[in-house]
Predict the structure.
Amino acid sequence: MSMLKKPVARIVIVSSFLVLLGVVALAAAGRKNGIVVSADHRTVIATHPSGHLVMPPSAPAGATLIAGNLSKYPFGVYFCCYGDTISGLDSFLGSDYWFAIPFTPATDMTVTEAQASVAWGQSGPNGVSLSINADSGGLPGNALGSVDVAGLGIFGECCQLAQVNGGNHGVPVKGGTQYWFVVYTSSTYESTFDAWAFNSTDMRTYPAAFYATGNGGWINTSGILPGYAIYGR
């Protein structure tokens, strides 16, 4: 009799586990395309990472790295599946969520190229906005240069980068002065939901800033930074 009970118990446990998995899967899909958003909407996780690989662009020839943290691993320039939320006011989250990283050039330069590990969450237009901003009291101030970037990779894949190449034009920056690299949504991407993927090869805590509509402005924060690189000449 006891031997008959054990298989039945196993079946019940397995069935319960499968039901639970189904509920979790439905909850994740309800969040948007298998991407789970944290309770405060500030971070996201891709629950179904893809094995699809897009080789990242190489460093611009003749340019100097001003600031950045992109990994040297060709098949893992950043971590595909965890990141900071980047969204517009008309997105399904109903709020702007933006993120900014401070940087200080060692010498006077002109920023000509920038790369960010931001990817599309498959909701709203496929794109994002990047800018170099002045500092205002330790937070992002006025934009010194900005651009919309279309055709992002899909969040959960690696390792396409949102890239800006200023060519003969750029943003002059002074050595020893703090600036900000901002990833946000312009009016073009007001309904977009993106994610700026972390570079988890560096697990140290760094200063940063985030913006949400309800905050009424930028707020200082700190943590693991998303992947980025800023080049100049």
About this structure: Confidence is low (pLDDT under 50) at residues 1-30. The first helix runs from residue 2 to 32. The two ends are 80 Å apart (CA to CA).
